[in-house]
Write a structure and sequence with these properties.
Layout: E1 2-8, E2 11-16, E3 26-35, H1 38-44, E4 61-68, E5 80-83, E6 93-97, E7 101-103, H2 115-128, E8 135-139, H3 143-153, E9 159-163, H4 167-175, E10 180-182, H5 189-196, E11 202-207, H6 212-221, E12 222-230, H7 243-249, E13 252-255, H8 261-276, E14 286-291, H9 295-303, E15 311-315
Parallel strand pairs: 8-9, 8-11, 9-10, 11-12, 12-13, 14-15
Antiparallel strand pairs: 1-2, 3-4, 3-6, 3-15, 4-5, 5-7
Helix pairs in contact: 2-3, 2-8, 5-6
The protein binds zinc ion (ZN).
Zinc ion (ZN) is lined by residues 37, 39, 59-60, 116-117.
Length: 316
């Protein structure tokens, strides 16, 4: 089978390897789509320094079951699934433990059924504990932010404010459930949020960028006793925190990125259920598809943030 192996900075090489053999509790999938995650971008472009080459990436797969292990019940050859895999999924085939697989309906396109990032977003919203009528702010309208906005709106908040420096993304945020959209290059966003909340600040602010400035903004615009949800992937440089304000406001600061595997899978099952019911839409978010052979171009386009790209998927 073909697999993309990261051999160095910006250098995936397509290699021919044998199809993995199965343990009794494992399942083999023919990978039909695998999303590109921002966290992988840092491995590819060299921002993340301690990468060991060769490296096998791709953790957002969906596909069709090709073979099931001896002790696997409840799954059959031909089932459409999404899964967490320990092997790189920028490949024609990948295996997973039966406990790490979720079935998807046959009518859902594979590139939309990316269980892993959907699970992250679902778990982020579960941790943020949004209540009916809350004022919610989401900072950052990339793939994750746009997914978080859709999920947050299912909790019936009184308003969702979306913040991004890209007007195209703000337009999409409005289409997907944001009530108000603001661009910090044009508007003082802290003042704005204070204005619409009678000077109190937002009940919940979700930071979905992984950058310093939005973290500071979030600290300033969240209300006393509010919830500051850190969802962005903060990597590399250290962050400074206004501890005095966190402390004075008595904030609940929630690091909402889930790592525990059972909770991860629960989030995935919930997310796929919401996708099947049409409660969340992935179609407008998966804007670019690339064959496996063009994986370097897919990463480059993602890195360059080419116009209109929200998320790219590799189609092996
Ligand atoms: Zn990811």
């Amino acid at each position: 089978m073909k697999i993309a192996v990261l051999r160095g900075v910006k250098n995936f090489v397509i290699e021919e390897v044998s199809i993995p053999s199965l343990e009794a509790d494992e399942v083999l999938m023919h990978v039909k789509a695998c999303g590109i995650c921002t966290s992988e971008l840092y491995l590819w472009n060299g921002k993340f320094k301690n990468v060991v080459f060769p490296s096998y990436l791709g953790h957002e797969p969906s596909g069709v079951i090709q073979e099931v292990g001896r002790n696997v019940g409840g799954f059959n050859v031909g089932d459409h699934v999404t899964f967490l895999s320990e092997t790189g999924c920028f490949a024609e085939y990948a295996k997973a433990k039966k406990s790490s697989i979720v079935k998807i309906a046959n009518n859902i396109p594979f590139e939309e059924a990316l269980g892993e990032p959907i699970a992250c977003a679902v778990n982020g919203i579960r941790r943020s504990n949004i209540q009916f009528g809350d004022n919610v702010v989401v900072i950052g309208c990339g793939f994750m932010g746009l997914l978080l906005i859709q999920l947050a709106s299912l909790r019936s908040p009184s308003s969702i404010v979306a913040i991004d420096i890209n007007d195209e993304r703000l337009k999409l945020a409005a289409d997907l459930g944001a009530d108000l959209t603001i661009n910090p290059r044009e508007v003082d966003v802290v003042k704005y949020v204070m204005g619409i909340t009678n000077g109190r600040g937002a009940d919940v602010v979700i930071e979905a960028t992984g950058e310093q400035k939005p973290l500071d903004m979030a600290t300033e615009m969240v209300k006393i006793r509010g919830r500051l949800v850190i969802f962005g992937y903060h990597v590399g440089e250290s962050r400074s925190i206004n501890m005095q304000m966190w402390n004075w406001k008595g904030l609940d600061v929630i690091n909402a990125h889930e790592r525990e595997s059972e909770v991860y899978m629960e989030g995935m099952r919930i997310g796929i259920m919401l996708l099947s019911k049409g409660k969340i839409k992935l179609k407008p978010l998966i804007t670019h598809k690339y064959p496996l052979e063009e994986i370097n171009r897919a990463f480059n386009d993602t890195d360059m943030k080419i116009k209109g790209l929200i998320k790219a998927a590799v189609i092996p």
